[in-house]
Amino acid sequence: MINITSTTTEQQQLLKEGKLLPIMEHFYTIQGEGAYTGVATYFIRLGGCDVGCHWCDVKDSWDAEKHPLTLADDIAEIATAQASIIVITGGEPLMWDLTYLTKVLHEKGARIHIETSGAYSMSGEIDWVCLSPKKTMLPKDDVYKAAHELKCIIFNQHDFKFAEEQAARVGKDCVLYLQTEWSKREKNLPEIVEYVKENPKWRISLQTHKYLDIP
Ligand SMILES: C[S@@+](CC[C@H](N)C(=O)[O-])C[C@H]1O[C@@H](n2cnc3c(N)ncnc32)[C@H](O)[C@@H]1O
Ligand SMILES: Nc1nc2[nH]cc(C(=O)O)c2c(=O)[nH]1
Ligand code: SF4
Ligand SMILES: [Mg+2]
Question: Which of 6, 60, 159, 192 is most exposed by smallest CB count within 10 Å?
């Protein structure tokens, strides 16, 4: 767990127990990426990430201190009132102990998905794990094992090689996706199309929410 300095002793304890979490934003939308593209889902975005991807599309999430500490019980109540599939993302959500949040969400009947770089070990009970590995902080072994979906971001040519290395680390039933880095999409998409035609174990994932101009 990462340290948030401006907190009381009581808040520190609740953070440690996963009962309090820095929440950047939460919103009901359509899953834009990967295996559940097009499905109505409620997103909970946790603050805090030290992986440092230079092309990250949510850099405001990185500093956990900027995001209000919120009770897991409260966010679970709000999220489950609106949707039955909840995506926990960030920031890097596995920086936090998700045991308590996922227990409460499951008690309320939700199905829980996560978007993670895998840089920290799994916590909590998660029904669908989307692993998006990063070269700067490779995934932990337990996250490779837990992954249902591997989503590799293509920024440059070398990323195809990295994607193959990562595909060799996940289980045989893990679904494999290549997703262009958004700012490089015009150059990369034709190359990704050709790559998938030649290597059909891969599928293409697009950030469809950006085309739809929704959150
Ligand atoms: C913002 S991250 C948050 C979750 C976690 N930190 C991770 O990286 O998986 C959510 C997803 O967006 C992807 N992503 C972030 N910036 C992107 C960009 N500029 N273009 C394409 N995908 C991006 C990440 O690789 C990840 O799959
Ligand atoms: N609609 C929508 N789909 C998404 N899939 C993964 C996202 C993320 O930022 O984790 C995301 C997001 O931010 N919005
Ligand atoms: S790991 Fe995820 S949140 Fe962190 S910098 Fe990379 S894309 Fe952004
Ligand atoms: Mg996003």
Answer: 6
Q: pLDDT, tens digit, for every residue of 34-79? A: 999 999 999 999 999 999 999 999 999 999 999 999 999 999 999 9
Distance in angstroms (rounded) separating the CA atoms of residues 174 and 183: 27
Gap from CA of 171 to ligand 2 centroid (Å): 24
Establish whether residue 89 lines the binding site of ligand 1, counting it when its CB lies within 6 angstroms of any ligand atom: yes
- Is the Cβ–Cβ distance between 127 and 146 less than 8 Å? no
Fold classification of 22-212 (topology level): TIM Barrel (3.20.20)
Which value, to the nearest 10 degrees, does the dihedral of the CA atoms of residues 39, 45, 49, 52 take? 50
Length of the chain counted residue by residue: 215
Q: Is the CB of 132 under 6 A from ligand 1?
A: yes
Sort residue 67 into left (φ over 0), alpha (ψ -120 to 50) or beta.
Answer: beta
Please state the pTM of the whole predicted model.
Answer: 0.98
ipTM rounded to 2 decimals = 0.99
